[in-house]
Design a protein that fits this description.
Layout lengths: L13 H15 L5 H4 L6 H7 L4 H9 L2 H17 L15 H13 L6
Helix pairs in contact: 1-3
């Protein structure tokens, strides 16, 4: 049974990957009892690695970790930003002088008309 509000992650420790493989098998392999999923002498990872999933299941599995990857990128960016190693970038500002970007940013932050 899958419990909790987070899926295990395949990109962490071997233990975490084993839990992720178990979750994928529970979700995408037909079963009625645990015996249908794996034998006692097998690991979830071994069963997962030899299981053939439908193309649709493969697409879904490929997207199952995107939220975690986005959170990791966000957290990494926050750490770099706090350390002063990155500067926030406005989309589409390539080739625009930084003085103009700073003026626009300042105007946006101080524009009372934007207050709702």
């Amino acid at each position: 049974v899958l419990l909790g509000n987070e899926m295990p992650r395949p990109d962490r420790s071997d233990t975490e990957r084993n839990k992720w493989c178990r979750a994928m098998l529970i979700l995408f392999k037909p079963w009625r009892s645990v015996k249908d999923l794996k034998r006692k002498d097998e690991t979830w990872t071994n069963v997962f690695d030899r299981t053939e999933f439908s193309p649709n299941a493969c697409k879904i599995k490929a997207n199952m970790n995107i939220e975690n990857e986005c959170k990791d990128a966000r957290d990494k960016y926050k750490v770099l930003h706090k350390a002063g190693k990155v500067k926030p970038i406005m989309p589409g500002n390539e080739g625009v002088p930084s003085s103009e970007i700073e003026s626009l940013t300042s105007a946006l932050h101080h524009d009372a008309a934007l207050d709702v």
